[in-house]
Design a protein that fits this description.
Heat Shock Protein 90, Helix Hairpins, single chain, binds magnesium ion, five-stranded mixed β-sheet, 24% strand, binds adenosine-5'-triphosphate, 270 residues, 2 domains
């Protein structure tokens, strides 16, 4: 990209003497400004995540004690009565307490500052394990695996399993009437990548801007807290990776997890 400026040089009386035309290559400057903007946005996002994390943690602790008390009192009530009408109501209370408890658990997971356990890991293996773990939810889905050989990378296997599980569960939920899920691994630049492509409902452009925001959900109350992807994003970013997403409304979505290869691997498959 080029910037053009014209300067007219005048004499003491102000009459034009000559013009100077300056052409400048500003490609690099524009690129670095865009990069600066991206970094600023990323920093703001991390700060937002951290403050929401703190809030969520306090909130979850405050809510979990009364929930436990309700649970205990309900169990006592259940044992003390044989009245069907009361037992039916007790059932409703139990179900709702369970629901609220699972939201609280998700919140605690989201905000917990767990220690990273970084060691050499086999990403392909972790992907396979995650698919296996989520398989009860993938009953209507045809899973196509293109899992090639990957070099071992440094990472936290438990946390990455959670990342893949969250993406897989979302994909299953996006295909309520079944569909196809293609899981691919590979190497791109200095990153090992894992992509998950579904043939589900897709994500609108407007929603695409918010999907990594904590508590953003399009799911019904009680079926989604909107923490799955923000949690996944945080986990991957902390390990030097990234998650990207491409989607077309009505035809499907691809989530790609990028994890850095260690320096000595330099992008080569061993
Ligand atoms: N594969 C997908 N296809 C279509 N929409 C998706 C997909 N993955 C995520 N989304 C959209 O992104 C939103 C946020 O996802 P996220 O996993 O963070 O929260 P959630 O699934 O709604 O709730 P939770 O994961 O906490 O149960 C979803 O509500 C959905 O609208
Ligand atoms: Mg989810």
């Amino acid at each position: 990209m080029v910037s053009l400026s014209i300067k007219t040089i005048t004499d003491k009386q102000g009459s034009p003497v000559r013009s100077e035309i300056v052409l400048m290559d500003v490609t690099e400057r524009i690129r670095s400004e865009a990069e600066k903007k991206r970094l600023e946005e990323e920093l703001a996002h991390s700060a937002r995540l951290a403050s929401i994390g703190k809030l969520a943690m306090g909130f979850a602790h405050e809510i979990s004690n009364p929930l436990t008390n309700i649970q205990l009192a309900t169990e006592l009530l259940e044992r003390k009565t044989k009245n069907k009408a009361i037992l039916d109501r007790v059932d409703v209370i139990t179900k709702n307490v369970d629901l609220a408890s699972s939201v609280v658990r998700n919140l605690l997971d989201f905000s917990r500052q767990t220690q990273l356990d970084i060691r050499p890991i086999d990403l392909g293996r972790i992907v396979e394990d995650s698919i296996e773990m989520v398989s009860p939810r993938l009953k209507n889905v045809k899973v196509v695996k293109k899992i090639g050989r990957l070099p071992n990378i440094m990472g936290d296997d438990k946390q990455l399993k959670q990342v893949f599980a969250n993406i897989l569960i979302n994909a299953a939920q996006a295909m309520p009437n079944g569909g196809k899920l293609t899981v691919k691994t590979g190497v791109e630049d200095r990153f090992a990548i894992v992509s998950f492509s579904d043939t589900g409902v897709g994500i609108s452009e407007e929603n695409l801007r918010h999907i990594f925001d904590p508590f953003f959900t399009t799911k019904e109350v009680g079926s989604g807290t909107g923490l799955g992807l923000s949690l996944a994003y945080g986990i991957v970013k902390v390990q030097g990776g990234d998650i990207t997403v491409e989607s077309k409304l009505g035809s499907g979505t691809t989530f790609t997890v990028h994890m850095p290869l260690s320096a000595e691997q330099g992008g080569k498959i061993q």
